[in-house]
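Sync notes, pocket subgroup
Present: LS, DG
LS reminded everyone that the earlier model was apo-only. Rerun requested with coenzyme A included. Inputs:
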Amino acid sequence: VITDSVVLAGSVTMRPAEPGDAAALCLAFRRNRGHLRPWDPDRGEEFYTVEAQQGRLRDLAVQRDAGRTMSWLLVEGDTVVGSIMLSSIARGPLSSAVLGYWIDAGHTGRGLATAAAGRACSFADEQLGLHRLEAGTLPSNSASQAVLAKCGFVRYGLAPRYLHIAGQWRDHVLFQKILNDLPPR
Ligand SMILES: CC(C)(COP(=O)(O)OP(=O)(O)OC[C@H]1O[C@@H](n2cnc3c(N)ncnc32)[C@H](O)[C@@H]1OP(=O)(O)O)[C@@H](O)C(=O)NCCC(=O)NCCS
């Protein structure tokens, strides 16, 4: 259950993102601007302000209350070292959500993304009762593909010109993980 805080590895914990995290999250995005640029949508200058992050986090809190999104931060002390999210949560016959994540450049290669994704999968299965999770990566994102494979995701397709990332519509490799075959909640 991840509605509180769980230790992921060493002194890094995973807990739900809150509007009060805006300043620390803003610092993390500034620190990781170059690291995330190849994998993220284009961000304007405005994105790197505390006000913009506060707005995003408030919006995520509204979406969480509506059951559409679940968003966690990975924190070490007062520092945000990563983020992971279940978005586009769909109920009924689809019972699915989209998984996304990033890890601070100074903390990669320690298994944090794999541990966080594993927790998010358990949450989606046990707490949300979803049937399936989906994730997409750029074809060149070997690290993210390794994370998904380690968490039991299976590649099921290639979507041409799927997402606008780093300034262009880019192909994405699509992965899914079946969580259970229970009837929709
Ligand atoms: C992708 C990302 C989240 C991985 O985070 P992480 O905490 O380093 O991931 P983990 O340590 O759990 O696992 C990384 C795996 O990728 C592997 N890996 C790393 N770089 C690699 C590369 N260039 N080629 C192949 N595999 C690679 C590691 O060896 C490891 O696998 P292993 O445990 O089998 O050795 C992180 O690099 C990141 O934030 N990248 C930028 C944003 C991003 O790509 N987000 C995902 C968008 S789909």
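DG: Residues 36, 39, 101-103, 108-114, 137, 141-144, 146-147, 150 surround coenzyme A (CB under 6 Å).
LS: The first helix runs from residue 22 to 31.
Action: DG to write up.
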